[in-house]
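User: tokens in, sequence out, please.
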């Protein structure tokens, strides 16, 4: 999946504690620039966990471990030190969040194996590995998906893109059911361009049980991870996953299941000049090709829109996640290419109030 927030106003919004905890890492540099830490300042080996946490030798609780690793992370300049520590400890204890642990789990001494697991995962976080990769999984919508580098990590705002698609489908079904003679609605065929971990495609398959999906990504690691997540969720029979770049020559293969009802994509849309401003976690571990949208951030967006008319049914739609600077740019580009018969129908805002999602529709000839 391709994604990054690119304007500083949005980034300030994402520093709200709740949103940043959901995010797990900040996609852009904050005022002051990137952290240039060369390596751990405080080595955990110099401050034994048992010595630092408990007055009773050998007894370390989950709460002790969280407090300890929070201090180590803070000393080493790790973003979201408390949240990182809580996620790691709760994961080792088999919970989604630290807040969901009961008092018994919080204060029962950790086993030696659990302490070793926490140490190993925390060492990865000290290397600025994103929490999602450290844990090897992350939640998106109602799904728990496997994660591993360099496949791009789905962000919370992309869940809104899925919700917008679902709302559009719901409205379409309501309009049809209100007709005197309802027209049989075929099972929607969905194309996702840039599937990454499969977060968008698999969420739509779960929420639209009659749908079928074609998922495309040019990175083999992304295709493999989407396949793995589809298999774990028992959705592989309804998804066709292709490993190739999207281009005009690929249109015939993309029509494997017939004309497309709608295309959905979270494409690379970071302006090239902003790439150097990405966080250390992203620069070190994530696929930068999944972010770089070229000089105007629209390199892949333009390819998708140029390809859409040959793939979509009449009145079919394209749903895109974009940079807040893109809606006007996309509208001007479509007006300059009237032969595509595409119209910008709606612009939706993200949870920071920034224009982030586009609904573009193909007109009937």
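Assistant: Sequence out:
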């Amino acid at each position: 999946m391709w994604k990054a927030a690119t304007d500083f106003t949005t980034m300030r919004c994402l520093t709200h504690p709740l949103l940043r905890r959901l995010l797990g890492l900040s996609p852009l540099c904050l005022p002051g620039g990137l952290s240039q830490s060369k390596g751990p300042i405080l080595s955990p080996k110099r401050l034994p966990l048992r010595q630092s946490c408990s007055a009773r030798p050998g007894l370390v609780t989950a709460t002790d471990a969280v407090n300890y690793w929070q201090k180590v992370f803070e000393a080493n300049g790790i973003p979201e030190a408390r949240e990182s520590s809580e996620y790691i400890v709760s994961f080792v204890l088999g919970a989604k969040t630290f807040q969901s642990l009961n008092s018994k789990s919080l204060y029962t001494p950790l086993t030696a194996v659990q302490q070793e697991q926490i140490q190993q995962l925390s060492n990865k976080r000290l290397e600025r590995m994103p929490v999602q990769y450290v844990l090897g999984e992350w939640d998106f919508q109602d799904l728990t998906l496997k994660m591993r580098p360099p496949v791009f990590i789905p962000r919370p705002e992309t869940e809104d893109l899925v919700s917008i698609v679902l709302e559009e489908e719901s409205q379409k079904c309501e309009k049809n059911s209100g007709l005197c003679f309802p027209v049989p609605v075929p099972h929607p065929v969905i194309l996702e361009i840039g599937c990454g971990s499969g977060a968008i495609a698999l969420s739509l398959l779960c929420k639209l049980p009659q749908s079928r999906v074609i998922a495309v990504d040019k990175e083999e690691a992304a295709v493999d991870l989407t396949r793995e997540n589809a298999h774990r969720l028992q959705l592989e029979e309804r998804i066709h996953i292709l490993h190739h770049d999207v281009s005009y020559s690929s249109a015939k293969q993309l029509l494997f299941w017939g004309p497309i009802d709608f295309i959905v994509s979270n494409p690379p849309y970071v302006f090239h000049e902003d790439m150097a401003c990405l966080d250390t976690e992203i620069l070190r571990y994530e696929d930068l090709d999944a972010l770089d949208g070229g000089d105007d951030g629209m390199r892949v967006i333009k390819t998708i829109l140029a390809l859409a008319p040959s793939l979509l049914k009449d009145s079919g739609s394209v749903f895109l996640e974009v940079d807040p600077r893109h809606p006007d740019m996309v509208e001007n580009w479509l007006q300059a290419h009237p032969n595509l018969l595409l119209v910008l129908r709606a612009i939706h805002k993200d949870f920071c109030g920034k224009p982030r999602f586009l609904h573009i529709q193909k007109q009937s000839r």
